[in-house]
Task: structure prediction
Amino acid sequence: MKLPMPPNHQGARPAGGAPRARRLAGALLGAVVAACTGVAAAPAGSTGAASAAAVAATAATTAAATAGAPADAALRAARAAAAAGDADRVAALAPQLAGHPLEPYLGYWQASARLHAAPPDDALVRPYLARYPGSAVADRLRGEWLPVLAARGDFTTFDAERRRLVMGGDEPQLACYTLLARAVLDDGRRHEAIVHEARRLLALVGDPGGEGCTALADRLMDDGALAPWQRLQVLVEHGQSSAAEKAAIRLPPAEAAAVPRLLAGPGAWLQANLVLAARPERAEHALALLALLALGRDAPDEAAGFAQVLGSSYTPLERAVVWGRIGRSGQLKLLPQAHDWFARGGELVGVGLDYPRANEVLESRARAALRHGSLGGALAPAGGASGPDWDDLHDTIAQMPAELQADPTWIYWNAQALIALGRPDDGHAALRTIAGRFGYYGRLAAEQLGLPVELPARPEPPEPLRVDELAQRPGFQRARKLFELGMRDEAQREWSWELRGMDDPALHAAAELGRRMGVLDRMIVSAERMHGIVDLQQRFPMPYPELMTATSAPLGMDPAWIYGLIRQESRFMEDVRSNAGAIGLMQLMPTTARYVARRIGFENYRNDRIAEVGVNLRLGTEYLKMVFDDQDGQPLLASAAYNAGPARVRKWRAALAHPLDGAIFVETIPINETRDYVKRVLFNTVVYAALLRRPALSLQAMLGPVTPKAIPGAELP
Result:
């Protein structure tokens, strides 16, 4: 479905209407003006004093910035020295930074550099924590200190400092070290509970071979609470061969020696040892399970052939682990056999304390059930000749842990299963539980129930005095300076630190402060934390209205879609650079920008202009139009292609045997990032269309059915 341009389109402009609509339109227009100019509209009843104060503050800031330029250069140099581990150079720069607003970072960099030296030196940590208690940067240093304490075996200090840590406690290796500390310090009364929690974490964590999780696993194996074979299964499942080879030293020598060989060539090893592997009393039997897991990661078809031969010799749980691995790989490769492979694993797939990546396996099995068969434009009825395996989907969701079952994704799909299985009342009741949620599946549920898009009324603006008070907080002042210096990661951490414990009015004011400072991503982040106040002006800004019109109208592109994509790509951070090298509002790779510039005849383009708002918006919109045309005019596919690449999406579409419901296509996208990206972009588009007073744009209509047409397409980057 091609997103239509609104009649007589005049740009990103809310229209009038009923009083409530006019209030919302005024708020949105104010947001556009403010975002474009950086100056907030004066609230009703205000005087010129506020404007005079703003001018004076701007002048003072400019003077301070000029005076602080040499110190800023020294600060950047100190940061670079710390990154290189040169603590002495950091110390030498200290005199130049006395009194600088970011002076606390100098001490942090010194202490951090010594912590990461070999051997680690934590002599500067305690004095720093005492000097800057309750600060974001002190909390960060504490988080870096904790693994050093754990590796040293000082679990008493670790436990005390871990309890003081505020941010970052869910980092996987730190989580493992935390459980290790509990195990070491336990007096025996919580032993079983700690072991249970530790084994579950090791089975689910994303990096089980990291230092913290290896230390935890070694402790459990030393205590006899975890079998080496269970540990090896988890490591092999994650493809962590080096960690698996190290863990294999706990096996008898002959078996330990076989592990590196079978990991290097699992298919060849299985072929050579197939007869012996079928005998449960032989060591090759357990080793073959590891080989099947290793082979199943990359070659599920080949692994399935071996598993079919060996399956009867394994226990039900072992079969579930093997076929769960093979099925998950098949689902990620969009192979039609994936559904059957999961079925061969039986009811224990994804079940059990030590089951590797159990939650991911269960979600993958649910997606394989969704992808099974084919669909037209509507969901197939129960008992039809084609369509999802609703029975298997319903049963798989029932096996998920409570926190997964409560996710809107699986509430929605369980509702579809209930409806298809002849229980429409139960299905519609489930849809009603999420129809009010502000998100992709909430909107899909609302549309299925016939509920229109209803935008909340614009709240009263935050009190200017409260915003001014927040601006004086040292943490926000540090964040502002860090943003000015391009130290975005540090700035965002300072901002998040200040948001802790804020109620809705304070968060509302913090969001306005973000707008004043020109960091719209912090405005959005702050606004999204509110529960009782919904300020769409803050959550969904629409800057650059004239530029958006001039860019989108000649191409026939919908500004609501472009805004929705930018919000997901960069959250309106103009100079942001991703780890992959994408730049600017629309996160263009330099190679892509050059390709588009050449193709459209963009004069005087240079890669050093890629972050310019006008350049980035034009090249990004032109590229989105190219992708849109390449993907047969379907916004779902074009959004996916913008993130994952056109060639990959063409491959996914060409793999279809029959038309597939668009919502199922989205949920079965095999890349987690792209799946989430498409959901957010399309939902953002619906919201922006409503804000622009467009006729209600249906999310389901944007999804459409996805046909299996193989699109040759251009060779787009």
